[in-house]
Amino acid sequence: MMADGPSGDRLVEMLAALANPIRLRIVATLAGGRDYVSHLAREIGVSRPLLHMHLQKLEAAGLITGRLELSDDGKAMKYYEVTEFDLHLTAAALAAAAQTLTPPDPPGPARKEP
């Protein structure tokens, strides 16, 4: 893709991570500033295990980062924040990204029936 946009594979990964209402809410909430898991779960209205699953997907896509910190009382707290990203989706940008997609695996040899 053009130098100012992600490659096709990266774009697919980012869009797949954002293609979920809970993950979109997480990114929107974190756009207001970093937050820790328990508070973020309450803010979004989901359980912590469900939140962790979505945070892992967003972190794997490079859209958020997490860091473990100790509170004043010595309690470990995991904070997340949004990484800087800027997506401009236009037909031309998608066409350019498509040119950089990893080609699909070629089909294997046809199996003969016994």
TrEMBL record:
GO terms for molecular function: DNA binding; DNA-binding transcription factor activity. Pfam families: HTH_20. PROSITE patterns: HTH_ARSR_2. The keyword Transcription applies. Keywords: DNA-binding, Transcription, Transcription regulation. Residues 3-97 form the HTH arsR-type domain. The keyword Cell division does not apply. This is ArsR family transcriptional regulator. It comes from Jiangella rhizosphaerae.
